[in-house]
Amino acid sequence: MEELKLGYYFKDIESFTFKDVFKNCTYPWEALNNINTYIKEFMKDENMQINKAQIGEFCSITGNYFIDEGTKIHANVTIQGPVIIGKNVEIQSGALIRPGTIIGDNASVGHSSEVKHAILGNKSKVASLAFVGDSILGKSTRIGSGTILANRRFDQKDITIKINEEKIDTGLDFFGSIIGDNSRLGANVASLPGTFIGSYTWVLPGLQVRGFIPAEKRIFPKIEYIITNNPKVELK
């Protein structure tokens, strides 16, 4: 099924700084299983290293990590290794980067956002107060403020995806979203576990999305207002 294959979402993996995390993957979620092994191999050469990055005050960096040159870590950021952060990345104040995260070059993570066991492509941007868990963001993907990529079912069962009436079991009980290159999720979007969004698709603010959304689409909310009379009340 082509809509589930890696190339449907990520067209330029060769330009990704840490491309070998996708090695031998047919489906994108397989790369999530590769993260820990890839980081372990990477750390053999680059163990606990910071290459000319700027680290702000009151930051906590623990475990194994690699932070490349030109990256700026603002004040009060918490990084829990193992973590790999590429060149010229910006991690804004109060952000939490949890174990098993790989962040590509020129990406950014906003104020008080949380990223957990995820792959962020080159030039991807996560705005403030967002959660990205067990997910993959493609090149130049944008995640709006307050957006949540939920990563676990209420019943804690393995996460499945349904395309063209066919249900596929990912075999993962923690799995957020696959967001293709150059896609954009507006503020306060919530994606349910196992959401797949193709490249160049925009999801407008405030929506809840699930399942498979094709490439090059624009998803609008349907909003209805009820307007009633309001008494004149002067509040204290």
Secondary-structure topology with pairs:
Blueprint: H1 6-9, H2 30-46, E1 49-50, E2 54-55, E3 60-62, E4 65-67, E5 72-73, E6 78-80, E7 83-85, E8 90-91, E9 96-97, E10 101-103, E11 108-109, E12 114-116, E13 119-120, E14 125-126, E15 131-133, E16 136-137, E17 142-143, E18 148-149, E19 160-163, E20 166-169, E21 177-179, E22 184-185, E23 190-191, E24 195-197, E25 202-203, E26 208-209, E27 212-213, E28 218-219
Parallel strand pairs: 1-4, 2-5, 3-6, 4-7, 5-8, 6-9, 7-10, 8-11, 9-12, 10-13, 11-14, 12-15, 13-16, 14-17, 15-18, 16-21, 17-22, 18-23, 21-24, 22-25, 23-26, 24-27, 25-28
Antiparallel strand pairs: 19-20
Any overview of this molecule?
With 236 residues, the chain is mainly β. It has a single domain, classed as Hexapeptide repeat proteins (UDP N-Acetylglucosamine Acyltransferase, domain 1, 3 Solenoid). Helices cover 9% and strands 29% of the residues. The chain has two helices and 28 strands. The strands form four sheets. Strands 1-4-7-10-13-16-21-24-27 form a nine-stranded parallel sheet, with helices on one face. A hairpin with a 2-residue loop joins strand 19 (160-163) and strand 20 (166-169). The N and C termini lie far apart (61 Å).
